[in-house]
Amino acid sequence: MKDLLRIKSLISADIELLLNQQVKKEALSSSIYLAMASWCNRNGYDFSSEYFFKQADEERHHQLKFYKYILDMGGNAVSPEVTGIKQEYNSFREVFEEALDQEISVTNAIKNIYARCMKEQDFVTMEFLNWFLKEQREEEYKARRALELFEVIGEEGTGRWQIDKHVGQIKYDSEA
């Protein structure tokens, strides 16, 4: 029966595995951002807390897009288990450094799936991934800009308060 189901699937077993790994990576990102939102909230960084809550929602949305795509293609989408989420950070800056690292990791994982699709000539999945590549350009941009605030504003005096205030105002305009 498994072979019969695989014939009906429009993605290879390897691509399906990579997509399910991405489902887990997106779920992990969402959970990491929730933990960051909580840490920011507990430490008085209300605007950054809201920023990370929005990021968590976006990652959850991305997770569901991958999940539904696997199902739409006749694959077996696997609901991921996410554990081991870091809850404490040494500094406000560390939160944003790790957020950027997380976005870069997600981008690299998507590029890996895309490369595999190119090898298999899975043009349908490549087209699906194009949206995520554009989205990651925005996500990395926003994460870098947030981290740059620490250099531009500085953390001394009211610096962290100013950084917190500006984080939610970061916008990305791909047309500029």
TrEMBL record:
Superkingdom of the source species: Bacteria
Enzyme class, spelled out: oxidoreductase
Reactions accelerated catalytically: 4 Fe(2+) + O2 + 6 H2O = 4 iron(III) oxide-hydroxide + 12 H(+)
Gene Ontology terms: biological process: intracellular iron ion homeostasis; iron ion transport
InterPro entries: Ferritin (IPR001519), Ferritin-like (IPR012347), Ferritin-like_diiron (IPR009040), Ferritin-like_SF (IPR009078), Ferritin_DPS_dom (IPR008331), Ferritin_prok (IPR041719)
Record GO cellular component, one term: cytoplasm
Keyword Iron: yes
Binding locations of Fe cation: 26, 59, 62, 103, 136
Entry EC number(s): 1.16.3.2
Chain's role: May alleviate iron toxicity in the presence of oxygen. Iron-storage protein.
Broad class of the protein's primary localization: cytoplasm
Organism the protein comes from: Mucilaginibacter gossypiicola
This protein's record includes keyword Oxidoreductase: yes
Domain Ferritin-like diiron residue range list: 9-154
Keywords: Cytoplasm, Iron, Iron storage, Metal-binding, Oxidoreductase
Localisation per UniProt entry: Cytoplasm
Protein name, entry field: Ferritin
